[in-house]
Amino acid sequence: xxxxxxxxxxxxxxxxxxxxxxxxxxxxxxxxxxxxxxxxxxxxxxxxxxxxxxxxxxxxxxxxxxxxxxxxxxxxxxxxxxxxxxxxxxxxxxxxxxxxxxxxxxxxxxxxxxxxxxxxxxxxxxxxxxxxxxxxxxxxxxxxxxxxxxxxxxxxxxxxxxxxxxxxxxxxxxxxxxxxxxxxxxxxxxxxxxxxxxxxxxxxxxxxxxxxxxxxxxxxxxxxxxxxxxxxxxxxxxxxxxxxxxxxxxxxxx
Length: 254
What we know:
Number of strands: 0
Radius of gyration: 27 Å
């Protein structure tokens, strides 16, 4: 389900709660809405509001953690690629083909994750299908060092390749993990119940109705942001391409 669909479902569900509260308010006898009854209902809704706030904060923190983790992994990958290219350059002219393939792999990955036009599928799926670094690792394994310096550089290059492959799969696994859908469902249900209670007790006028729908819009936007941050390789709130763009500029230099 897309982030926009999730936020629209949340907006629709909460809107139903608001309108249902307004409707039932007209049907209840006056003694059901006495000051004592309202105080008791407000206490109950206060508990629901507290629980909804806790779940909302938990979802925001979890989604932000996912976004930051993948963003940091991407920055780390960029740094390791630059070190790998530097080591290959120091190794000797026989690594020219390997360095060119490395540059092509980085350019292809950027095109998959940050394309200039539409792709055939989500960036996370495209990243999973790619195997460019395996080809670079195979070429590095074919190198035959002649000096101690070359042996040291080759060992470091192999280590960096292994780290890059591991980082790629970590990003893939983290991007597929996602937030449990049940948490979003529970949050929307609690917010619907909360706004139903507010509509039940609120005066029936257009000002109150508009205010409630603006609050509803705020919560729906929060659901959209949570879902977007939880998928940092796809959607509107993608991680920045700046680290890998800088790497590509470096790799394009002679």
